[in-house]
């Protein structure tokens, strides 16, 4: 009996040869765990790593093609917890599904552990998580000696204007990253993770650094000309010390919005912007 | 009809009350907000109080008075024009056209067009395109009826919304934030030149609409009825439709669609002052503006630092108030 159970377990572990990812976060984690060669389907938004771009597309996170997924004959579909009941719908058509939740930094570590456990590479998962934690610690140690920088990060606004400013606030992944880089969120008291904030509140709270992703076109990169445009927009408000001291940065990077194993890189980018003098 | 007959004395009294209310809001609202502002520092020009007051807050109050007044007046015009008590400035697709333009600009990453934000230009073009489509669909030769206007307007509206949903479903993370924000509508701190530009377009149209108030009274009763009383119904419908669309379009370009106001303010004032357009039009402008400025004050203050979409407040404050008014005045209510 025990032998049979062992054989069944072994068989089910080896069975996971065809994996489908349903979010960019999951794709990134799968490749970091060395499972890239087993991934047979990703979403249209999965742009990292380079190999993922060439894989068959199953649609998007909120609107995946169930028939496309079935056609790829997966033996494991990894789904991010979502409001469209994707896991239930996939299970209903007979697929093996696990549900993960890489929303925040700790969620990424849990996702790494869950995927590693499901495919039987626990040790590798632990190793990956430990490496991420130790690199983050290095940055944190280097910046914690310096005074915290009061910072705001805008994830959205009406393009070409400073209207409809949406800030990342308490509880958002971005704010976790910025905290890891020695930043202090000026909208710490917000009850919403991504509040729309008013210009007057921004003037009153007067951040030292403004990071603006508001005009991003979704391509994940930003041109020098665009950077100058954004800075020109903000120059209308010289009362802001970030504007006066030239600490307004136009940014756009997938690593800021896709929680995953590249969080280390994201934190390092932020640490260089917030504390250019820090060394790690 | 609600209210008593409109004597010159009553007209002056109502106008004075509405004007006083509007003025009071203009004087008080700029001092209320999430950031503390010291009047002495504002007058002395000390940062950041001066900037908060003049750049961030006064501009919002002025914009909300102008936009609220314009939308409430447009609501009066469309309700009379279509003889539909559920009509509002957005029924005929002008604002959805503007929104579609804005969403296109956001999705394609257009940022600047000359000195103005590309979103505004695109919204203006969208509103004009919707307007031309409605005109093309609704007209039979040079004639037009409220039925054909309503049908073509509602259809254009539906098509524009469908395209917006399509674009939204393929937009990126940052873009969908921007699209959502636009569609919720909001009052922002704009530059004074923007407010001046808006006033230059909106105020003459309002005065033009007011001068036709007697004809509006007849139109509200029916096109045939108005025709027998000497109103050139078709021409009057065109001019009313264009006037209402022009002010709705221009306001929507800057604020996005701010819901509810254009529907409820005219009805509330009809219950209050009666359905005579000679008083309804100016009262709607003054109190619509004051109402939106109050709502925006609540929107920027109650959940600070979260700036709530002003349309949420207009509905949450205005809705119960209107129900109460309806309840106590129901017997006299007749559009």
How is the secondary structure organized here?
The complex is a heterodimer of chains A (280) and B (335).
Chain A: H1 2-15, E1 19-21, H2 24-32, E2 39-41, H3 50-53, H4 66-71, E3 76-80, H5 86-92, E4 97-100, H6 105-118, H7 122-144, E5 149-156, E6 166-167, H8 173-180, E7 183-185, H9 199-205, E8 209-212, H10 224-234, H11 241-244, E9 248-250, H12 254-257, H13 263-274
Parallel strand pairs in A: 1-2, 1-3, 3-4, 5-7, 5-8, 8-9
Antiparallel strand pairs in A: 5-6
Chain B: H1 8-28, H2 39-44, H3 49-82, H4 94-107, E1 112-113, E2 116-117, H5 118-138, H6 146-170, H7 173-184, H8 192-211, H9 213-221, H10 223-228, H11 233-255, H12 261-273, H13 277-301, H14 310-329
Antiparallel strand pairs in B: 1-2
Helix pairs in contact in B: 1-13, 3-8, 3-9, 3-11, 3-12, 3-13, 4-5, 4-6, 4-7, 4-11, 5-6, 5-11, 8-11, 8-13, 9-13, 12-13, 12-14, 13-14
Bin the helical content of chain B. over 70%
The number of distinct structural domains of chain B comes to 1
Instruction: Assess the beta-strand content of chain B as a share of residues.
Output: under 5%
SSE topology string of chain A = HEHEHHEHEHHEEHEHEHHEHH
Radius of gyration of chain A: 21 Å
* 3D shape of chain A: globular
- Ranges of chain A where pLDDT stays below 50 over 5 or more residues in a row are none
Query: Please, what is the oligomeric state?
Result: heterodimer
Shape of chain B: globular
Name the average pLDDT of chain A: 90
The helix count of chain A comes to 13
Q: What is CATH's topology name of chain B? A: ABC transporter involved in vitamin B12 uptake, BtuC
Q: What's the number of domains of chain A? A: 2
């Amino acid at each position: 009996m025990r032998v049979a159970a062992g054989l069944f377990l072994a068989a089910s572990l080896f069975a996971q040869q065809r994996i489908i990812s349903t979010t960019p976060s999951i794709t990134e984690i799968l490749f970091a765990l060395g499972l890239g060669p087993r991934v047979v389907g990703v979403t249209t938004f999965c742009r990292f790593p380079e190999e993922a771009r060439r894989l068959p597309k199953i649609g998007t996170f909120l609107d995946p093609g169930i028939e496309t997924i079935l056609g790829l004959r997966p033996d494991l579909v990894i789904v991010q917890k979502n409001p469209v009941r994707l896991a239930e719908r996939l299970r209903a058509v007979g697929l093996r599904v696990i549900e993960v939740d890489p929303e925040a930094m700790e969620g990424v570590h849990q996702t790494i552990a869950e995927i590693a456990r499901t495919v039987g590479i626990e040790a590798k998962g632990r190793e990956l998580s430990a490496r991420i934690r130790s690199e983050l610690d290095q940055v944190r140690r280097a910046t914690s000696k310096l005074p915290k920088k009061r910072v705001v990060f805008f994830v959205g606004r009406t393009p070409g204007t400073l209207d409809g400013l949406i800030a990342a606030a308490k509880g958002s992944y971005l704010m976790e990253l910025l905290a890891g880089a020695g930043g202090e969120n000026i909208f710490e008291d917000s009850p919403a993770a991504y509040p729309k904030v008013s210009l007057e509140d921004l003037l009153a709270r007067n951040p030292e650094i403004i990071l603006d992703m508001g005009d991003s076109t979704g391509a994940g990169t930003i041109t020098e000309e665009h950077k100058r445009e954004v800075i020109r927009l903000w120059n209308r408000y010289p009362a802001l010390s970030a504007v006066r001291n030239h600490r307004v940065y136009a940014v756009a990077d997938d690593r800021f919005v896709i929680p995953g194993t590249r969080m280390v890189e994201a934190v390092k980018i932020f640490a260089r912007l917030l504390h250019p003098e820090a060394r790690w | 009809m609600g209210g008593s007959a409109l004597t010159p004395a009553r007209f002056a009294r109502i106008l004075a009350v509405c004007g006083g209310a509007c003025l009071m809001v203009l004087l008080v609202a700029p001092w209320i907000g999430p950031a503390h502002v010291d009047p002495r520092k504002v007058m002395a020009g000390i940062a950041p109080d001066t900037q908060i007051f003049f750049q961030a807050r006064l501009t919002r109050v002025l914009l909300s008075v102008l936009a609220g007044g314009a939308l409430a007046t447009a609501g009066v015009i469309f309700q009379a024009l279509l003889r539909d008590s559920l009509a509002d400035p957005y029924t005929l697709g002008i604002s959805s056209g503007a929104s579609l333009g804005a969403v296109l600009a956001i999705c394609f990453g257009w940022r600047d067009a000359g000195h103005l934000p590309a979103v505004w230009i695109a919204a203006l073009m969208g509103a004009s395109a919707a307007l031309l489509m409605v005109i093309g669909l609704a007209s039979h030769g040079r004639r037009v009826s409220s039925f054909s206007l309503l049908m073509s307007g509602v259809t254009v509206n539906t098509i524009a919304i469908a395209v917006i949903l399509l674009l939204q479903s393929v937009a990126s993370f940052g873009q969908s934030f921007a699209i959502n924000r636009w569609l919720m509508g909001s009052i922002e701190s704009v530059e004074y030149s923007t407010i001046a530009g808006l006033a230059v377009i909106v105020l003459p149209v309002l005065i033009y609409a007011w001068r036709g108030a007697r004809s509006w009274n007849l139109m509200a009763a029916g096109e045939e009825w108005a025709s027998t009383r000497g109103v050139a119904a078709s021409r009057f419908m065109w001019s009313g439709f264009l006037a209402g669309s022009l002010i709705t379009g221009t306001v929507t370009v800057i604020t996005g669609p701010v819901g509810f106001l254009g529907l409820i303010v005219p009805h509330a004032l009809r219950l209050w002052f009666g359905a005579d357009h000679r008083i309804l039009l100016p009262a709607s402008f003054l109190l619509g503006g004051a109402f939106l400025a109050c709502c925006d004050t609540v929107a920027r203050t109650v959940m600070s630092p979260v700036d709530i979409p002003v349309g949420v407040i207009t509905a949450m404050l205005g809705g119960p108030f209107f129900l109460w008014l309806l309840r106590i005045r129901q017997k006299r209510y007749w559009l």
